[in-house]
Structure formats: C-alpha cells, structure tokens
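#help-structures

NK: newbie question. if I give both the sequence and a SMILES, will the prediction place the ligand too? trying with 2-acetamido-2-deoxy-beta-D-glucopyranose
OV: yes, paste both and it writes out the complex. here, I ran yours:
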Amino acid sequence: MARELRIFCSFLIFVGVMHIVTFVVTGEPQVPCYFIFGDSLVDSGNNNKLATAAKANYRPYGIDFPQGITGRFTNGRTVADLIGEFLGFTEFIPPYATATDNEIRTGVNYGSGSAGIREESGSHLGDRISLDRQLNNHVTTISRLSLLQSNKTFTNEYLKKCIYLSNIGSNDYINNYLMPNNYPTRNIYTVDEYAALLVEQYFQQLKMLYDLGARKVAVFGLGQIGCAPAEIARFGTNGKPCVEWINDAVKIFNEKLKSIVNELNNDYPDGKFTFINLTSISAPQGDLPIPSPPCCRVGEDGQCVPNSTPCLLRALSVFYDGFHPTETANTVIATRSYIALSPMDASPYDISHLARL
Ligand SMILES: *[C@@H]1O[C@H](CO)[C@@H](O)[C@H](O)[C@H]1NC(C)=O
Ligand SMILES: *[C@@H]1O[C@H](CO)[C@@H](O)[C@H](O)[C@H]1NC(C)=O
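OV: that's the protein plus ligand as structure tokens.
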C-alpha cells in the first residue's frame, strides 16, 4: 500500500510539473543540440547490430513507444528521450549507429546497453560501446559537423551551447564488480577502492568531453542497484527490502562522483557540470523505495522474455524488466532532473537551469 501511495504521490507531483514544462516547451528548443552518453538506461538502438546479448529490439520492449520496437530497454521513452522533449526537441535524438548528416545537427545518442566507464564491463554479454569508445564516436561526429557547417569557429561555439547528458556506471557494478566469476575486480579492490578507481577514470572522461567543447553537462549518479529485481533475485536481501551492501557500494560511488563534479566546476570556470541524484529523486519521502516486481516476465539474465505479454498496469510499475525502469519511473526521474523538487535532486543546477546558463 505504501508503495502505491508513493507512486501515486510522485504522479501528482509529476502531473504538476508537467504543466510547467508544457508551458516552457513552445517554439524553438532551449538549446540547439543535445548529446547523450551512457548505457542501456539511454540506449536508443546502438546495440541492435552489435554481437551482444544486451539488446532490447524485440517485443515486449517498446510496447508503449510511438515508433514501437527501437532497441530501447523499456516499454516507452527513456529518461534521455523525456529530457529531450522538455528541452523542446520535437524529434528524438538519433542513435549514433544510424544518424544521418542531416540529423546530427541537433545531437547524437551514443548510449550502449551493458557499456561502462571501464572498457571490460559487460564483455561477458558480447560487444558494447564503452564510454571511451562513445567519446571517440563523438570525435567523429564533431568532424562531420565541422564539414557540414564549414566554419570551425561556428562549430566550436555551437558545441558549447549544447546539453550533454551522461548516465553510466551501473554496468561497472552489475556487469563487472558484482560478477566475480567473470571479472577479477572484486578480488582485487575493496568497494571503496573500486569506487575511487571508477570515479577517477570518469573524471578523465568528463575532462575529455570538456576538451571536445562540452560546457553544459548533466552527470547522472547511479540508481539504487540493490533494489533492482534482478539483483534481489541473485543476492537475496536478508529480510531487508533491498540488497543493502550493493546500495552501500553505490552510495560510495555517488558521493565520490558528486565531488568530482564539483571539482570540474572549480577547475573549469566556463564549464557547468551538474550532478543528478537518483536516490533523492526516486525516494520522495527520503527513505528507500520499496522494490516492486518487474512488469514483464524476465529470464535468467534479467531481461524480458521475448514475445512475453507484459503487465497491464505499466503506468503503475516501477521496473519494466529486472533492471530497467518503466516509462512512468523514467518520467519521474526526467521531470525532477529537469526541474528539481528538492535541492538534493540536482546540484548545483537542474537541467532547465543548465540550459539557460
Ligand atoms: C564563422 O562563424 C563565426 C561565429 O558564428 C562568425 O562570426 C563568422 O562570421 C563566420 N565566418 C564565416 C567566414 O562565415
Ligand atoms: C542524494 O540524496 C539522498 C537523499 O536525499 C541523500 O541522502 C544523499 O546524500 C544524496 N547523495 C549525494 C551524493 O549527494
């Protein structure tokens, strides 16, 4: 009951905020371009042609998405899609895998399911586009844009106006540290050492993004992986609602991530980086979200069983499969990262503020 009530409250808040957002979104987008980096939480089809088990280009994924099945790991729109709408983009930002010259002017989505900050994360599932490779792809996009715009000064100024969203790191836990049979990291590093190592690498990657012209960057912290149905099924909860030690590990990562975001703001006064706190956003009352069963029938791998029939009350479900939120949950996340409801949601700026800077 408490859970339903909480979801319902988020809904009311969401409906309230939607009014403001609808008001803002008229005419031109807030920024000319929007680039998306990350994993399956934002992937919009980049994995479809890769040799990997981490794909979502089959039913029942995409059942509530306007264009149907696209490779998005949810029933409808992702957080990145929704933020794009709030920013005023009338089309979804195209995946890098298929983006045409005409499409890249408004941005590119580089997200790749199972990808991580670390190169090897997700490798037991097959190919994936790690964050380093996503950054290399961005270098290629910039060359394409430079050719199209045929004015280097213009392109440089243009890139500074875009919003950049980065949502990555979950697979460095789920498909790396939490799988000691497939990856050595847990035998080498303590939870604290591993978080420090990840965040140091992410710091370098975000600096590279800055060097490539990014000035408005929203960095998403990790959600509470210990509350994902697939992790609960794997590790058990000892009578608690979630796998506490996993959430503790994620918390350490998030705290360190927030501090490097502050450090980037100090190191680069003309760069505006902001940290989005998913813990704050997903728990409106400040306590742990109560985990809920996934909407679709999931296999051993936590993904929806192909062609299975998903639950009917998708609008009231938090998880679509064993790992990924439903469009409803994505809407709450996107809405509160766009316009923060609590000062904890986004710091120092929410995305609507970032767009106006
Ligand atoms: C190139 O772009 C800059 C910045 O928008 C502009 O000031 C300049 O006039 C442009 N140069 C040419 C040759 O069009
Ligand atoms: C995120 O928000 C939660 C809940 O408000 C808070 O306890 C936590 O310290 C925040 N995390 C960071 C890294 O700021």
